[in-house]
Amino acid sequence: MNDWKNQTWFGRDVAAGTYLNTELEITESYSGRNITIPIRVIRGAEPGATLFVTGALHGDELNGTGAIRSLISDPQWGPARGNLIMIPVLNVLGFERHSRYLPDRRDLNRCFPGHAGGSMATRMARVIFDSIVSRCDYGIDLHTAAVRRTNYPNARADFNEPECLRLATAFGAGVILDNRGPKGSFRREATTAGCPTIVVEGGEVWKVEPSVLECMSRGIVNVLKELDMLDGDPEVPENQVKLRTTKWVRAERGGFMEMHVSPGSTVVAGQPLATNSSLIQEDHNRLEAPFDGIVIGMTTLPAVQPGEPVIHLGRLSSSKTVRRVRRQSQADDIQRTTQEHLSTNIQVTPPGESRS
Ligand SMILES: [Zn+2]
Known about the structure:
Number of domains: 2
Low-confidence stretches: none
InterPro entries: AstE_AspA_cat (IPR055438), N-alpha-Ac-DABA-like (IPR043795), N-alpha-Ac-DABA_deacetylase (IPR053138)
Distance between the termini: 72 Å
Oligomer: single chain
Bound molecules: zinc ion
Mean pLDDT: 95
Number of helices: 8
Cofactor: Zn(2+)
Organism: Allorhodopirellula solitaria
GO molecular function, one term: metal ion binding
Keywords: Hydrolase, Metal-binding, Zinc
CATH topology of the largest domain: Aminopeptidase
Order of helices and strands: EEEEEHEHHEEHEHEHEEEEEEEEEHH
């Protein structure tokens, strides 16, 4: 039965106004056991939209897992209207090995919408698509930076899709980025299939960082409000930054990097970003901002070779915008705290005099 009062999710009946902890069979292990994804389905008492929220599609990216677990730790919590499908770990096989990838080294986030007769990864993608995406109206997919990098929390969406832009805006990260995602990625293929989906990036792999968790939790609640699944208006920072262009500033020389900026820092063109030198402090080489911008990601590994990415910079339109964005992020408690916390993971020094 699939009227509002009684629906079947993953083979189980779930009445309106109740929740279900269940599992979706996704594949079988080498020893022939079922591999399943744990899922909580929370049903509002009244009809409304159906939203999925996924963490750890890359199995080592755990901030989203932390945010989802924190919200569902209260069994009373959930939408007043609509259905919420909470999936703390989508890529259970990667998660079991603390790895981004599947055991066959494929990236599950390049295998959507999948294929029932294909590789292990594409078969899993197909099950996820058929069982979850096909029944949802919207989606939020939570990620972190890749290994040895960190990200200032930002939502990524295809700005040409009004519903994606709407979700990204409502999520309430200080920075949103126009990016539809690579071919085969979950958000791009889900959006193409009629389920507008955004990605949120924040922090590092292998951790639950409290300030990133706060940002992601607020964002999920904000989207529920935007979709009228919860009462109230989303808390969105004033002067949210919309980025259309980003660039990785890369190391010119090998050596040890000292950073002059941290995630969320705003910079003007020509401002020093980082200085690298030999281990005995010779051959200094300074990297400068190629344009006015905001640091949305950076390496956490200070040792670099020429060409390696150091600072991921989003382009802002002018130095006036830089000042406005700086004021905006300082005025929002969650963003200010996140910026402070993320900067303590990296040695940040003043640039001093140019020594190159
Ligand atoms: Zn990821």
